[in-house]
Amino acid sequence: MAERTLTPRELNRALLARQLLLERVRLPIPRALERLGGIQDQYAPNAYIRLWSCVEGLRRDDLTRALERRSAIQATLLRGTIHVVSRRDYWPFAVAIRASQRDWWLRVHKPRPNERELARHAKKLRTLMADGPRKHEELVEVAGRGWAMVGPWLELVRVPPSGTWETRRANVFQTAEGWVGPEDVSEDAALDQLVRRYLAAFGPASRDDIAQWAGLRSRDLAPALARLSLRRFRDEAGRELLDLPRAPLPDPETPAPVRFLPTWDAVLLAHARRAGVLPEEFRPRIFSTKTPQSIGTFLVDGAVAGTWGYDGGHVSWETFVRLDRATAREVADEAERLAAFHA
Q1: Peptide bond connecting 204 to the previous residue in cis, omega within 30 degrees of 0
Q2: Relative to the CA of 51, which of 29, 114, 145, 215 has its CA 20 to 30 Å away?
Q3: What count of other Cβ atoms lies within 10 Å of the Cβ of residue 186?
C-alpha cells in the first residue's frame, strides 16, 4: 500500500538532497559517485564539475587520481553512454544491463550482427589487451573500424590519462577484467544493487523511471523489485513511486542554494522529470537538435534558472528568469568559484 502522496516540492527536495545539491559534503570520491548513482560523462570535464558542485573542497586532480588509482572507473554503461562510477559499482552495473544491451544491440543494428562474429572479435581484442591497455588505433588494426560493434560482448574501460580533464580525448582502453578485476557478482545481486543505487540517488521514483535511467525494460526490473523491501508512495497524478526504507525526504521548504551543473546532468534527464528541476518550458533551450550535447545550467531554488559557459578564464551566465539582487549576487559568486576551479 502507498504510504502517502508526495507533492512536487517534496520530490524536488528529495532529489536535491540525494544528489548532494542541498549542501556540499565531505566524502571520498568513490562514495560520492555511489551517492550520485554515477555521473554521465560524454565530455570529460563533466564529472569534475559535477563533483565540484557537491563535494566540499574538491580539487581537480582529486578525480584524476581516483581514476588513476582505479577507485573511480570510466566506461560505457547506462543507456549505452559514458559514465564515471565507483570501482565497487562497476561490475554490478555492467552485469545488470548486459543481457538487455546485447538484445538491443542486435535489434537496432542493420543488418543484424552475427553474434558468433562479435564473440570472435571480442576474443581477439581480449588477447590483444592481455599485456596492457591499447589505443583506439590498435583496436582498429585488429578488428577493423567496426571494433566498437563488439560492444556488450567485451566490457572495456577508458584508461587514464585519456578521458581526464587534462587529456580529454578518451582513446586508451583496457578490458574491465584487466583494469577493474574479475567479474564478481551474480545477475540477481547486480540487478538488486542497480535498483538500490537508483532509488538512493534519485528516489522516490517509478519503475519506469528506474528502467529509463538504466536502459532496461520495466519488466526486466520485476525480479529485483519483488526481492527488495521498498516503501511506496504516490505522486499527485496517482502514479506509484518506489523508495528505499529510511531514505531522506527533507522538509519541502528546505532552502536550496545556487548550484552549477555540467552538460547532460542526470537530474535534468527525462527519468527525473517528476522532481521539476528542469521546468518544461526551458527544456527545448537545454536539449535541442542545435545543442545535442546540452548546455551547462545553474539552479536557483532547486530549478534551472539559466545557462553558463566558460571562456577565457571567466564563467559567463544568462538567466531565464528575473532574479532579485541577492540571488543574482549568489549566482555571480558561485560563477567566480567555478571559474577558479577551471583555472
Answers
A1: yes
A2: 215
A3: 11
State the Cα–Cα distance between residues 234 and 7, nearest whole angstrom: 9
Q: What is the model's pTM? A: 0.95
The number of angstroms, rounded, from the C-alpha of 260 to the middle of its chain's C-alpha atoms is 16
* Mean pLDDT of successive 10-residue stretches along the chain, which has 343 residues: 89 98 98 98 96 97 98 95 97 96 84 82 89 90 70 91 93 96 97 98 98 96 97 96 96 98 95 95 89 88 97 96 97 98 94
In one-letter notation, the amino acid at residue 66 is A
Query: Measuring CA to CA, how many Å separate 301 from each of 60, 254, 256?
Result: 27, 9, 5
